[in-house]
Amino acid sequence: MTLTDGQRAEAARLLREAEHRADPVEPLSALLPGLDVADAYAVQQDNIARRLADGASVVGHKVGLTAPAMQRLLGVDEPDFGHLLDDMVHRDGSPVLAAHYCRPRVEPEICFRLARPLGGPGTTVEDVLAATDAVAPALEIVDSRIRDWRITLVDTVADNASSAGLVCGPWTPLAQVPDLAEVVVDLVVDGERVDSGSGREVLGHPAAAVAWLANTLAEFGTSLEPGQVILPGAMTTAPFVTAGQKVEARFSVLGPVLVTFV
Predict the structure, then answer these.
(1) Per residue in 187-196, pLDDT tens?
(2) Whole-angstrom Cα distance, residue 10 to residue 193?
(3) Which of 67, 164, 179, 184 has a beta carbon 3.0–4.6 Å from 143's, enabling a disulfide?
(4) Integer Cα distance of 38 and 112 in angstroms
(5) What pLDDT, on the 0 to 100 scale, is given for residue 195?
């Protein structure tokens, strides 16, 4: 780490206030030029700890930066991760208040639900599939508390990997899904398809992202627990959304999931 405890605390405070007010701040990487990845994860953990102290609970994790284009944009060669809390979860089809966010986007993902503990190091795709009991169609609401999404790696890591919400559809037993890499999705906004993708867009196989997460969390002394859900990464582009828009992700095998912004 390169920042002082006081500097990390200030970064965490800025992000908390930006989220509470839905009013983004300037990039932390500009405000605190010494910010490195270790500092950024410490800032993320500080804000998660505060939310847990206020009564929230961890329901899982998300993996970000799995798309090669996003890795090239931020100059990195591996993903990042954030936390999913119970107060971030919305029911399939329910209305979501757009004004709650700074500048939200949505991305379709295959959500994993674990039946067994999963911890690294050395976790493989096969280990992930053996530990997973079901998958579901999902939409992740991503939001940046950094102004105009002018993010570097450390900005998004500190900002809980830009995670903001989860809308999850019905669960399908994993045994009924032949190959997650072959699952395809159409992302539909206000009745028009804006993009399509497959599970291969996520590190070649969505379970590869979950394996990466398990191995990375081991470095923090943490493992994935039964019942937790994992978002492995986007299968398409992530369009911006505003109040009045309806977003649907139509998955092969898994079915649709829907959210309306009001």
Answers:
(1) 999 999 999 9
(2) 42
(3) 164
(4) 27
(5) 96
Which domain, by its residues, includes 121? 58-261
Supply the angle between the helices 37-53 and 5-21 in degrees, to the nearest 10.
60
If you write DSSP's letter for every residue of 38-49 in order, what string do you get? HHHHHHHHHHHH
Whether the predicted pLDDT of 76 surpasses 90: no
> In angstroms, how far is CA 60 from the centroid of its own chain?
10
Q: Is residue 52 part of a domain?
A: no
| Helices and strands counted in the chain (H then E) | 7, 13
- Position 70 pLDDT exceeds 80: no
More reliable by pLDDT, 69 or 62: 62
Task: Evaluate whether residue 50 is within a structural domain.
Answer: no
Q: DSSP letters along 98-110, please?
A: GGGSSS-EEEEEE
Read off the pLDDT of each residue in 143-156 and give the average, rounded to a whole number: 95
What ranges in the chain are assigned the alpha helix state H? Answer: 5-21, 28-31, 37-53, 68-74, 125-131, 153-158, 206-218
Strand ranges across the sheet with 184-189: 95-96, 255-261, 246-251, 184-189, 192-198
Number of structural domains in the chain: 1
Residue 131 belongs to some domain of the structure:
yes
CA distances for 32 relative to 151, 153, 158, 182, angstroms: 13, 13, 12, 43
Which CATH number fits the domain that encloses residue 115? 3.90.850.10
Q: Which of 81, 80, 100 is nearest to 90 (CA)?
A: 100
Residue 34 lies in a domain: no
